[in-house]
Design goal:
alpha+beta, five-stranded antiparallel beta sheet, single chain
């Protein structure tokens, strides 16, 4: 009986030594996750299980790298191209007089910088004023600096934001130019 217990213990010890090697050889190689969702849902030893339920269309968009920033044309509107770019946000408020303030500031900007286009938007409950259509953040920062020098009282509440912009006769740069 003692020999049988010793034999079983030796057999268990040998199995425990070789089992990780055998399982590593038979387990398929883990693929690198394509996006954050796959990384979160990956099953790893000693970690919990995460299940994410969402629309498949949204899953296809999340984590995918966009084409070169600012260079891909999203749409055409006559002589204008719509693409991801930058604007300077100079006003954002939900106060009762926000609408009239947004229009007053747009008029002030038209007097100071007539070449900058103004865009007033309302997304409940906020009225917002953005100006310009810039393909690069540097252009937007430069325009913001010019606006602040002309209208210094607005400096603390203005900043560069990423938005869809309209650029006249824009053609995307070729891959060799980037």
């Amino acid at each position: 009986m003692l020999r049988r217990i010793q034999f079983t213990l030796v057999l268990l010890a040998l199995c425990s030594l070789f089992a990780p090697k055998l399982s590593a050889q038979t387990a398929p190689e883990k693929l690198r996750p394509r996006n954050i969702l796959e990384a979160l849902e990956q099953i790893n030893p000693g970690e919990g299980l995460v299940t994410i339920i969402q629309d498949p269309d949204l899953r296809g968009v999340i984590g995918s790298a966009p084409a070169a920033r600012g260079s891909s044309v999203l749409a055409r509107d006559g002589n204008y191209s719509i693409l991801h770019g930058y604007r300077v946000q100079v006003f954002n408020s939900n106060l009762p007089n926000a609408k009239s303030e947004a229009y007053a500031r747009a008029e002030a900007i038209r007097r100071v910088a007539p070449s900058l286009s103004s865009y007033i938007t309302f997304r409940a409950p906020f009225w917002r004023l953005t100006v310009g259509n810039f393909t690069s953040q540097e252009e937007a920062r430069s325009a913001r600096a010019r606006l602040i020098s002309a209208l210094p009282a607005w400096g603390n509440e203005s900043y560069v934001v990423r938005e869809k912009v309209r650029i006249l006769n824009y053609t995307a740069p070729h891959a060799s130019e980037e």
